[in-house]
Amino acid sequence: MFNKIRNWRVRRIVAQRPIAEPLWRGALQHCAPARRLGASDQATLRVLATLFLHRKSLEPVQGLHLDDADRVLLATHACLPILKLGMDWYDGWHSVIVYPDAFIPRREQMDDAGVVHQTDSAMAGEAWGRGPVILSWTHVLNIGDKPGHNVIIHEMAHKLDMLNGDANGFPPLHRRMDRRVWWRVFSSAWDRLQDDQRNGADLPIDPYALESPAEFFAVASEHFFETPATLRQHLPEVYRQLEQFYRQHPL
Ligand SMILES: [Zn+2]
Questions:
Q1: Residue 46: CB partners within 8 Å, gap ≥ 6?
Q2: Which H or E run contains 98?
Q3: Which of 14, 150, 173, 233 has a beta carbon 3.0–4.6 Å from 177's, enabling a disulfide?
Q4: What is the DSSP string of 210-230?
Q5: How far is the CA of 69 from the centre of ligand 1 (A)?
Q6: What is the mean pLDDT of residues 217-243?
Q7: Nearest to 59 by CA among 100, 21, 27
Q8: CA angle 174-238-47, nearest 5°?
Q9: CB neighbour burial string for 126-150, b if at least 16 within 10 angstroms, e if fewer
């Protein structure tokens, strides 16, 4: 019964505010992972992007203006990770704040020793536990310039990670997935990449992954969607875990 009501609501939203064909084609043109999807997955992504624009508030700040094409592009990237999970996985938050460029969060953070620091480094994106996602529009427009980088997918992966508490690289796994396998796969990949980095080798994924387990999951997710062949070649077990989690097979 609930499903029926929900489907009716979804159909109504999609019928009332459809994404116009030229806008959708434009979004696909700037979203390589979406272009690689089959027709039926693309249709699902379009529905999810429509719902995303209906449910979330995109809030450009500091004089930035986002037109309809920009909004559709943002929503399309944002919905890739939940293509097979559903919109419910983005429940519990409302806003996407978009800065024109890298931003410096003006706030204090407490470290493990209880010391409060003023953060002062410029950021391309940020995701708060039950709060907004924050993005730099310059970095959104640069998606695709550096292979494997996608700031929107990165922040959305943090959102999924935080569904069961702190961002720790451990999103809520599906019933048939094994937490111990997930942990073993990600920690051995982490150890290997750390060794490679110490030996001065080029890493197959963005070295920012080694900042923390949360960043490892977010960066691996970017590569999973953007450069799946590279991820599968170099970190095949990580690739397989992400296939199971996202329920997608980008290759
Ligand atoms: Zn991050």
A1: 19, 24
A2: strand 95-99
A3: 173
A4: GG-HHHHHHHHHHHHHHSHHH
A5: 26
A6: 97
A7: 100
A8: 55
A9: bbbeeebbbbbbebbeebeeeebbb
Integer-rounded Cα Rg, in Å, for the chain is: 18
Cα 127 to ligand 1 centroid, rounded to whole Å: 8
**Rounded to the nearest whole angstrom, what is the distance from the C-alpha of residue 3 to the centroid of ligand 1?**
34
pLDDT tens-place string over residues 14-58:
888 889 999 999 999 999 999 999 999 999 999 999 999 999 999
Cα(83)–Cα(96) distance, rounded to whole angstroms?
A: 19
Residue 231 corresponds to which amino acid? L
Q: How many whole angstroms from 214 Cα to the centroid of ligand 1? A: 7
Three-state DSSP at 171 gives coil
- The answer to whether residue 66 scores a pLDDT higher than 90 is yes
Phi and psi torsions of 9, nearest 5°:
-60, -45
What is the spatial order of strands in the sheet that 133-136 belongs to? Answer: 57-60, 95-99, 133-136, 125-127
Quick one: what percent of the chain has pLDDT higher than 70?
92
Separation of alpha carbons 112 and 94, rounded Å? 29
The one-character DSSP state at 129 is S
- Span from the CA of 161 to the centroid of ligand 1 (angstroms): 11
**Against a cut of 0.85, is the pTM above it?**
yes
Phi, psi of 106 (to 5 degrees): -95, 85
Question: What tokens were used for 200?
Answer: 């001065």
